Amino acid sequence: MAERDRPVHQLQVHPQHQYEGGMKSHYQQRGPSTTKVLAVLALLPVGGTLLALSGLTLLCSVIGLAVSTPLFIIFSPVLVPAAIVIGLAVTGICLLKLLG
After folding, report:
1. What is the dihedral of CA 24, 26, 31, 35, to 10 degrees?
2. What pLDDT is attached to residue 79?
3. What angle (nearest 5°) sits at the alpha carbon of residue 37, between those of residues 36 and 40?
4. How much is the average pLDDT of 1-25?
5. What pLDDT, in 10s, does the model give residues 30-48?
6. Cα(87)–Cα(97) distance, rounded to whole angstroms?
7. How far is Cα 63 from Cα 42, in angstroms, rounded to an integer?
């Protein structure tokens, strides 16, 4: 009698269908189209040229830094006070213009 009062549990299995994408499923999957291949072939030299120019820019920046760093270290006893004097002069001129 006690078994009748309990609800019966049933297991339902539903098959899963995977959606393949509309009209694409009717056609066979092929390689890239001619337009895409031509676009890649046309843009490959442009990308290579831009990559070479960016590498050249980086190389020149490193060379310039390697040359200028020792010069800044050698001339820093002169450059630092000169920069301070110029900064104070510009600040003074700006204050004079601001105050009247």
Report:
1. -60
2. 93
3. 85
4. 68
5. 788 999 999 999 999 999 9
6. 16
7. 33
